[in-house]
Amino acid sequence: MPKSIAVEINPKVLVWLRESSGWKLEEVGKNLNTNVEIIKDFELGKKNPTLKQLKLLSKAFKRPLASFFLSEPKEQKPLPRDYRMIPGREGVFDKKTILTIRRARNLQMISKELSLNISYETKPKIEKIRLSDNPEMIGKKYRDLFDLTEKKQRRFRNSYELFNYLRDILEDINIIVFQFSMPVEDARGFTLVDDFPAVIVVNSKDSIEARLFSLMHEFAHILLGETVIDIPKLPLKMKNKIEKWCSEFASSFLLPTELAKEIFREQIADLIKTETLNSLSRKYKVSKAMLLFRMLKMNQISELEYDEVLERYQPEETLIGPKKEGVMGILPDKKCLSERGNKFVSLVANNFDRNYITYTDVLDYLSIKSRSFQKVLVKARK
User: Fold this and answer.
1) Close Cβ partners of 98 (under 8 Å, ≥ 6 residues apart)
2) Structure pTM?
């Protein structure tokens, strides 16, 4: 069998590709079935990898083979600021999370180009707010702007409908929303606002109620003008002021104080009973954890009661969401629209209609095959 040919590459490019993909030297060595010293020699330019090894790394790093032959590392925007508050893991992300960030960055760049092609505005139609602003008042302001009345909120058949309603409004004001899969324990959402259009990514592995909270929490980061990655949490004893502000905004938006007072007053004797929490969660399409937080914040329950009851619902916030979203079995056209949203798909469709992009570009941008092409475009044009 002929020996694989060693190829000359810029070792700086190899280092950049490895580090920007979240791989450690030991992991690369294991992937290539060789020792770490050999990998170090590759990165120091003392040895050249073989073409076969580069093909293996191309697959592992999820990078085109051609990227290993660049003359210099590419300049790229930094990772979002880390607000996850995971002890000992500041700035260290799972490979799948890094890949999702890269994916979102690429789609953001494509969205910008497609928007400019057809003279669409890319800047978000929002007023930037300050941390000194009251999150409850800002939450109420945007609830009014988004025309989310109590009656309308209750009329949605489920949390998916409310999520899609809010997603459409955000996309109408030039904030693109993607739903991509990441390890839930690593990140539940992030924002990209250092370029336009602004982007929100929520974790499709999360329960839909948790995604709703993440969506509005990340919107708050956009209002503050922040490119961040986090695990949105309700602000019980939260130390980070920005995360606390964003979570208070999200909870106030989804269940305003006046509405909360009214519904809690009606159920005052049975607030923390399972039947009550289930009923309120169904009516208002919010998580039980958020309901409990609002009860605690409004002095309707004690911290002890909050902790004890929340323990019953912890899986709701950490396990993979319903089967109809983001797992095997979902139809390709529905998956495309769920992941990329109507705004992005419509941008692609409009550019294709005007001959700015090719059929191959469409399939690539939407990650679909030919048989799903017409279904996706028809739904996007509705």
Assistant:
1) 20, 21, 22, 79
2) 0.91
